Amino acid sequence: MIRILHLLDRADAEFEAERGAESIARAIGDGFAITRRTIGYGGDWRDAATAAALLRRSREKFDLVHAWGGRAMTVAALGATSPIVFSPASDTRTRTVQWLRAVSSYRRVEIICPTSTLHRKLVERGVPLERCHLIRPGVEFSRVKRRRDTALRERLGFDDSDYVFLAVGESTRGAAHRDAAWAASILHVADPKFKLLAWGRGPLSGSIEHFGRNVMPEGYRIAEQRLGNRVEFEELLPAADMLLVSARDAVATLPIAIAMAAALPIVATVTPTVAELLEDRHTALMTAAGKPRMLARRILDLIEDSSAQWTLADMARTEAYEYFAFTRFVNQVRSVYRQVVDSDTVAIEQPPPGAGMRFHGRV
Fold first, then answer.
1. Fold for domain 142-322?
2. Which residue of 144, 149, 186, 216 has the smallest Cβ count within 10 Å?
3. Sheet containing 2-8: which strands, arranged edge to edge?
4. pTM score, two decimals?
5. Three-state SS for 130?
């Protein structure tokens, strides 16, 4: 039995980390025993110092620690003696990379990167290439509902005549959901049927609410606030007519992969992370980041071209099936765990290039 400790930065970890850890614990299969601990307010340990001290004195012994995020990696480095698997957050900063490089010089740390962009960033900043591995997140397609849900739209305050944009993922600095709200507000002024739906999670969820309240008080909804309970991102897809990816910087990959699997038309901005998943006029219509007026223009272009909507949505779903298979994700992580515990060199089998997919900067 391989004993593994999953460390998450905080009780309300970012969606990709939370879903990844939960999925692995549920689906990894026999031969593994996974214990989960969270760090921060509302978690198992109140802060990193306390977590490291308690982990060091704990009678529980683990064969491997999987740290999700920079603070969790610090706790693993200071409080445990076992090898470390590290899943960096999408917005990993230079300070975290410097600390990771220092820890890697005296401890075995294997890094799992969800994107080629992050993989390249770590290697360029001195993290050993042989310690960095590309494992793209897995989408549980059974969770993704494609049929429009009229009852859900009514609960959210939308009627059949409304055209609803869903801002993809959590509201973070990199996701720039304020730009999505700005673009939606431009269209809402021209026609009140255009409305915006945001999930309501993320450190900047209050910002989009404040912006929406000021510029289109009747044209925006914060899902979890409106419904009065926590909902999963996939549950909101049947309420949307179009998906908006308004990123300006690095963002979590999993919500975009789920958006692709939903077979809904997507309008997105161009950033290195987003360009790995989406391609202009192939799986989405795209424009430069940080330009809400151009984002609104691209939205109208796609609305006016119904054939493009179906073509792009179908291709996005096809590529999501090809590149974000859930079983592949779990199998690759399981392989890393076994190889690390067995003190082997980590080697991960990558899927062959597909006919349509073009991951820019593919490793």
1. Rossmann fold (3.40.50)
2. 149
3. 32-38, 2-8, 64-68, 84-87, 109-113, 132-134
4. 0.92
5. helix
